[in-house]
Amino acid sequence: MKNNAKKSIKIGRINIPLNYWTGLAVYAVILLILAICMIVYTGSCLKKYENSQSDKVMNDFLNDFTKMAADKTLADNIELPASSEFEGKDTFVNIYMSELDGTTDYTCKKSEGSYNTEEPMYDIYADDKKVARMTLEAKDQHVVLGILTVFDWKIKSIEPVFSAKTNDYTVSIRKGIHLQLME
Asked: In 10 A of CB 151, how many CB atoms?
């Protein structure tokens, strides 16, 4: 004799009948939840990847560079050489900062010949005149989604690019005892 009684599960006050359509609905809900989780995870991985691109990091740094140039603290963050024993570092700092006075537009682009993806070099321009070269360095990297490499960047170096005309001194010592300074 057949048992025609329908099987069901009782959860609290809810009585859920066990049949094909109920199983299909539960499966579809679980599949939908997993699909939403995968879409959210993929979106977050892509966002991390895009934010870790060196161009994005450089554009963020360019805002800081602009602020430092405007409030004259840029010379504290860029290493400028001392010119000679006669002219100190202040000479170069003043010349370099005077080149940036009145600049309204700072841009950057990847240096020609910079093919190293772990240490890219960028040229910084002030009103279409190159004023600095910056090198980034990948301090950490990891792979997401099995194919995308995400980098954490740090600034390796910032080199000023400018020409300075200073006084050149020539010291001549003749056979006599006295020295003569010629300009």
From this structure: 19
Residue range 113-162, pLDDT digits in tens: 777 778 888 988 888 888 888 888 888 889 998 899 898 888 888 888 77
Q: Where are the alpha helices (DSSP H) in 52-177?
A: 54-70, 74-77, 89-100
Among residues 160, 159, 171, which one has the least CA distance to residue 85? Answer: 171
Cα radius of gyration (the chain): 33
Q: Spell out the SS3 assignment of 70-100.
A: HCCCHHHHCCCCCCCCCCCHHHHHHHHHHHH
11 or 180: which leads in pLDDT: 11
DSSP reduced 3-state for 162: coil
Instruction: Give me the amino acid identity at 75.
Output: A
User: For residue 170, what pLDDT band results from cuts at 50, 70 and 90?
Assistant: low
Residue 99 banded pLDDT, cuts 50, 70, 90: confident
* Sign of the Cα pseudo-torsion (2, 5, 6, 10, in order): negative
CB atoms within 10 A of CB 181: 8
Distance between CA atoms of residues 129 and 69, nearest Å:
15
Alpha carbons 148 and 49: distance in angstroms, whole number:
7
